[in-house]
Amino acid sequence: MEIRHSVEDDILVLSLSGDFDTTEVEYFSAEIATAIDAGHFRLVLDMADLGFVNSTALGALIRAQKQVAQYGGAIASCRAPTTVEKTFHLLELQRRIPLHATLEESKAWLAKQGPESVSGTGEAVEFLVLGAEESFGSRARRGRIEEIREDGISIAFENLENLDIEAAFAAGAIAKLSFLIPLYHPTHVFNVEASITGYEPLGRETVIIRTDFTEISEPESEAVKQYVKDLRFLNDEN
């Protein structure tokens, strides 16, 4: 495997070509360590020329993601061949390292990542866009928490083939959200209102919806903030 480097908009792009198997893990891990030493904590893995990824290599990707997360960073990937994309989805690796169709989409996603956010819990979210019966429908839809910030959450939705995404998730629309954060409390349901700030595709069948809280009780707001701080601390210790 060959790894080429470029820096675009303060984001390090690692272009991978060839086969990423067990024999290449040490090489890849050394490249990640060098990137971190140089102060690069937001990385894109361009997989356009990647032919194969085995299980050991996938483990190296997860370790790399954990390493940069300790510094408030993140890793995204783009242009993965169909075989690699299927492997990501089979193991749900795209929840750790999002897959995007283009380099620009990966860079845009990374630009929104920061130390004030942590990876989501994967817990279910009941999501209803208020006053959008024609585009979204009158019933709540279920997604999963992809990211939690101190001032909002990002939600992953799947199987939305019959939905006009642009109309249903229009920026500025207000949605009602209901969700659990089990590591905060196993049964407490957060019921909040949030403004949709945008959306982006994640692979071919998933859409990520970004929201900012607009109505949330003070105790629940403090609970979310404390959860994010606690998770950041735990990530730093691991």
Annotation, overall tally of beta strands: 12
Question: Could you give me the name of the CATH homologous superfamily of the largest domain?
Answer: predicted glycosyltransferase like domains
Distance between the termini: 29 Å
Give unreliable regions as ranges.
none
Q: How does the helix and strand content classify structurally?
A: alpha+beta
Q: What is the rounded Rg?
A: 18 Å
Topology record:
Blueprint: E1 2-8, E2 11-20, H1 25-37, E3 42-53, H2 55-69, E4 74-78, H3 82-90, E5 99-100, H4 103-111, E6 117-119, E7 124-129, E8 141-149, E9 152-158, H5 165-168, E10 174-180, E11 189-202, E12 206-215, H6 218-237
Explain this structure.
The chain has 238 residues and is of the alpha+beta class. The protein has 2 domains: 2-111, Transcription Regulator spoIIAA; 117-237, predicted glycosyltransferase like domains (Thrombin, subunit H). It is 29% helix and 39% strand. β10 and β11 (189-202) form a beta hairpin. α1 runs parallel beside α2 (55-69). The model has no long low-confidence stretch (mean pLDDT 87).
